[in-house]
Design a protein that fits this description.
It contains 3 helices and 5 strands, in the order E-H-H-E-E-H-E-E. By secondary structure, it is α+β, with helices and mostly antiparallel strands.
Length: 145
């Protein structure tokens, strides 16, 4: 009996993604912000400047927290969803992210407040060697820059 080979002519659409791993901690948050802009440039219709900046700020804050509070390897994953971007940062810390009480006189410590304002909240997934913190950043309505 001859072997049959099946070829499908209909390709499955896979949403654009980006992932990056740092073996010794985050070395370039600017590179991650550039990756956000490049990935979001693939969204049609084209997004305004504001959703891209919001997503870049969320990535910057989550990666900065990983760099400050978690020794060792770190990973970033960006995934386009319908009308939003899922940002996931994996690190080696077993500590949950904590928002500090608001203090306008304090320098720093406001990042998770910004992430909460710009996203649909944080989700923490515990892993054998740390955690994954994810946030979904919605795109603004069309026509809003």
């Amino acid at each position: 009996m001859p072997l049959r080979t099946y070829v499908t002519t209909q390709a499955r659409s896979v949403p654009p993604r980006y992932s990056r791993t740092w073996e010794a901690g985050v070395s370039s948050i600017a590179e991650a912000r550039d990756a956000v802009a490049a990935l979001l440039a693939k969204v049609r219709p084209t997004l305004g400047r504001r959703p891209v900046q919001d997503a870049q700020l969320v990535v910057s804050e989550l990666l900065t927290n990983a760099a400050k509070h978690a020794p060792g390897p770190c990973a970033l994953r960006l995934e386009l969803l319908a009308g939003a971007l899922r940002v996931s940062v994996t690190d080696t810390s077993r500590e949950a992210p904590r928002r500090r009480p608001p203090d306008p006189g304090r320098v720093g410590g406001h990042g998770l407040h910004l992430v909460a304002m710009l996203s649909r909240g944080l989700e923490v997934t515990w892993l054998p060697q740390g955690k994954r913190v994810s946030a979904i950043v919605p795109f603004l309505a069309a026509g809003v820059a």
